[in-house]
Structures are given as structure tokens and as C-alpha cells.
Amino acid sequence: MKGIHTLVERWANSWSAGSPDELLSLLSNDCIYEDVPTQHVNRGKEEIAAFARVTRKAFPDLRIEVTCSFATEEAAAAEWIATGTHAGDFPGLSATGRRFRMRGTSILVFRGDKLQRVSDYWDLASSGLLPGAQSDQTGSG
To answer: Which helix (H) or strand (E) holds 45?
Structure first.
């Protein structure tokens, strides 16, 4: 399982580094990447690269810290804390200029040593990303 946990860390680090190339190197050619709260489903490396660029533009200092993970031979679940600044527009979310801190979970499914599917789950309401909302700065909710 150590190899799977290493891939999970590399996945999180690629988002934190703002490195679409590193992220793409972890994906199968037919990977599906789903951002559940915003209902965005990206299919294939080209769509996922575009999603990563839009995400980095909207959240230029995004950091993902994995706080807990577990894995089987074919899949992993990772609980994480995301922090950053909502500096640019994200589809369905106009820029607020505010810092945020939120908890989330990702389910990662592997085919060999590549990610075949990633589904991100986080609470849009407590993220501080909605107009007039406050971020969950405690990390408890």
C-alpha cells in the first residue's frame, strides 16, 4: 500500500505546486476527474489540464494538505484541508478575494500506477466561496 499512499501524496502536491504537468503524469489517458460540489466532470487529460489551469487562476496559492488516507489495492480515500485565496473566477463562483480554509475528501481509483478516476467532495456552503459566506477557519466542519 505504500506505493498508493505515495501516489496520493504526489496528487496533493501537484495541486499545491500548481503543476498541471505533474498532475497529468499521474493520470491514465482516459481519467475522469469529478468536482462533486460544483458538478464539473472532466474526461481525459486535455479537459483535466484545462480544469487545473482554471483552478490555479482562481486559487493561485491553493495548498492541499492530506490529513488522513487509507488505501486498498485499487483505490484510496484521502481527507484533506485546502487553503488559499479566491482571487479569480471559478465556474459558478465569482472571485471574492477572501482567504479560505476548508475540509474535503477525495476518492481516487487506480489502474496500475495511474489514477483512473478522482472524485472530490467538499462542503461548498462552509467553504467561504459563496457570496456572503464565511470560511470554516476552524477546520472543524
So the answer is: helix 44-58
Q: Cell 474526461 identifies what position?
A: 43
CA angle 4, 6, 9 (to 5 degrees): 115
Residue-level pLDDT at 132 = 63
Q: Retrieve residue 78's grid coordinates.
A: 484521502
Long-range pairs for 13-21: beta carbons < 8 A, 24 or more residues apart:
13/64, 15/52, 15/55, 15/62, 15/64, 16/62, 16/63, 16/64, 16/65, 18/56, 18/60, 18/62, 20/49, 20/52, 20/53, 20/56
Q: For all residues of the chain together, what is the average pLDDT?
A: 88
DSSP state of 4: H
